Write a sequence for this structure.
């Protein structure tokens, strides 16, 4: 049984990936500092899979603790989610974002080398593409200047991985580094059991938690940012992807075991864009709740429309998203109701 270290495994995407890994027969070690998650998530995972993941509360910016983590657990591969992820906050606290997201990656790579661990799956983002020149976005598109320090940490991390993989391939063939970078589009939804889901701290920035919190009466109204875009209904278009589909992409990426001199990048999206109004309509249909929303000015920094071409992941990872927008809104609402009644 292969042992996978999942950093940030108590977080939103991390926890769903731990479930998918356990269900696929992997042994999982979660490393999380609980800075944006709750240890209760670990017991919720066990309720779904009936398997206890090993949990280590650890700050990966501490080199000594990270090396010890690797020495104790000697994982066969790493899935590295742990990072700060709030775009707006990163503009306020850039140094903290650079320190946390870059130091933890460097420490993880150091720990891997220490114990001869060769495989890493990195959690990247469609934000590296900036405003795309054409659609759909493929992995061949150039990366643009990042719109936020958060986005820049993802770009820099991809560059660090690229240099490390190149060096390992050319100088250190007995310990090659195999790195896959998954560029997520807009992850949303929750596990159908409603035992795990997204737990945003404070006022949510993202659309789906804002919708469910408004429907639940926690927020008075959803502001739809802009209805004068050059799209069929005037609202922005995104490639929303169900978090369980996203989780399965990580399991398949682990099996992609090619030794090469570069990092393999994959778009992880559905290949289909939906507007904000289409998301609202799906939510109202699946929840039976009328949503209080109003049009508001455009949000600074928003891209008008973006969606992926997931063709490369389909071809090389044998992965495909098969859950619908209705599945996303339905499970997100079920999760919100579970949080309310907890
Ligand atoms: C989606 C749409 C908003 C809130 C973020 C990150 C990005 C990447 C994906 C990880 C937009 C509209 C939102 C609201 C609204 N993640 N909206 N009212 O901005 O596409 O991307 O997730 O790396 O880096 O920035 O996601 O969910 O914030 O917005 O109208 O209250 O919903 O304008 O069109 P975004 P989002």
């Amino acid at each position: 049984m292969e042992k996978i270290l999942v950093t940030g495994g108590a977080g939103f995407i991390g926890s769903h990936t731990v479930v998918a890994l356990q269900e696929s027969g992997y042994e999982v070690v979660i490393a999380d500092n609980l800075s944006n998650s709750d240890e209760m998530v670990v017991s919720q995972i066990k309720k779904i899979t009936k398997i206890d993941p090993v949990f280590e509360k650890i700050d990966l910016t501490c080199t000594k603790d990270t090396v010890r983590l690797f020495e104790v657990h000697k994982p066969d591969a790493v899935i590295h989610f742990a990072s700060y992820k709030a775009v707006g906050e990163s503009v306020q606290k850039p140094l903290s974002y650079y320190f946390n997201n870059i130091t933890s990656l460097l420490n993880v790579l150091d720990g891997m080398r220490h114990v001869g661990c060769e495989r890493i799956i990195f959690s990247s983002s469609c934000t590296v593409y900036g405003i795309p020149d054409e659609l759909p976005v493929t992995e061949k598109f150039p990366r643009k200047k990042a719109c936020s320090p958060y986005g820049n940490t993802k770009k820099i991390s991809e560059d660090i991985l690229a240099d490390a993989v190149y060096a390992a391939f050319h100088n250190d063939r007995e310990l090659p580094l195999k790195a896959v970078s998954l560029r997520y589009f807009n992850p949303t939804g929750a596990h159908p059991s409603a035992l795990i889901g997204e737990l945003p701290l404070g006022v949510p920035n993202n659309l789906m938690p804002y919708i469910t919190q408004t429907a639940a009466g926690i927020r008075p109204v959803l502001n739809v940012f802009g209805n004068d875009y050059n799209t069929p209904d005037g609202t922005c278009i995104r490639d929303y992807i169900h978090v369980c589909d996203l989780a399965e992409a990580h399991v398949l990426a682990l099996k992609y075991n090619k030794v090469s001199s570069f990092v393999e990048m994959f778009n992880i999206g559905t290949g289909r864009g939906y507007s904000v109004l289409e998301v609202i309509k799906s939510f109202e249909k699946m929840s039976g709740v009328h949503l209080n929303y109003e049009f508001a000015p455009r949000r600074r920094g928003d891209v008008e429309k973006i969606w992926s071409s997931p063709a490369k992941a389909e071809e090389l990872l044998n992965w495909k998203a098969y859950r619908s927008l209705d599945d996303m809104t339905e499970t997100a609402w079920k999760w919100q109701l579970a949080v309310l009644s907890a």
